[in-house]
Amino acid sequence: MLALKLALVPAFLAALTMAARLWGPSVAGWLAGLPVVAGPIVLLLALARGQASVASIAAIAASEAFNFAYAWSCRRFSWPLALVAGMSGWFVAALLLTRLPASLAWAVAVACVAVAVSQCGLPRATGQVPATRAGFGELVLRMVAGALLTLAVTSLAASMGATWSGLLSVFPLLGMVLAVSAQREHGPDFVALLMRGMVVGRGSFAAFFAVTAVLLPRYGVWLSFACASAVCIVVHGATRRMLDARRPAQEVSREASLRQPVD
């Protein structure tokens, strides 16, 4: 599992960096909602234990708490203080989630409330957001930071109980690295667009784990995860129109220019 995390997290961070460069922060945040990292990890847990934790769905609320606290804090403070605020938000939310009943209905309800709050309450971009120009050194730094965070979180999860292990399995590794690097390079408006894109992408994440939790007890690991992956892709595609409706005009025009044939 550790080897899988160390391979997936840096690779996906590199892919999201390229997505931000080509299509803007909204699309990068939207793609970050896919369970590319958490899905295979929970698959391994299911193979080992024969069950999937509903805490993975409830953990969406903790991730949104991180995003909410970071997005507002970074408008007034530098990234170290914003990171402290974001992590404080995540920890408080995670602590409250451990008090919830371990049921799918509660997990989905909490995740939906958190997403709704973020949809309404996250800050909006107030100015022109520059296109990302992350160089090779910055890309390597992001990948190394992702790998180090993966080691730290995985080591911590190994010593925790089932609930905390479920919450830490979907710890906002990607969101943390992307938020800090986005603020350092482009400022708070870039962070706002990135995290608003993440909110739109949460639906596919929740759908994946909800289908897994429902089907796994009856149909086994592989069929359950295959169905969950198919539903996840369908839901993620359906949210693309919602994403386009929320993207600033400069991102949409940039993407359209990339699609035009070159003479």
Automatic annotation (TrEMBL):
<feature type="transmembrane region" description="Helical">
    <location>
        <begin position="104"/>
        <end position="127"/>
    </location>
</feature>
<feature type="transmembrane region" description="Helical">
    <location>
        <begin position="221"/>
        <end position="239"/>
    </location>
</feature>
<feature type="transmembrane region" description="Helical">
    <location>
        <begin position="29"/>
        <end position="48"/>
    </location>
</feature>
<feature type="transmembrane region" description="Helical">
    <location>
        <begin position="139"/>
        <end position="158"/>
    </location>
</feature>
<feature type="transmembrane region" description="Helical">
    <location>
        <begin position="77"/>
        <end position="98"/>
    </location>
</feature>
<keyword id="KW-0812">Transmembrane</keyword>
<feature type="transmembrane region" description="Helical">
    <location>
        <begin position="193"/>
        <end position="215"/>
    </location>
</feature>
<keyword id="KW-0472">Membrane</keyword>
<keyword id="KW-1133">Transmembrane helix</keyword>
<feature type="transmembrane region" description="Helical">
    <location>
        <begin position="164"/>
        <end position="181"/>
    </location>
</feature>
<protein>
    <recommendedName>
        <fullName>Transmembrane protein</fullName>
    </recommendedName>
</protein>
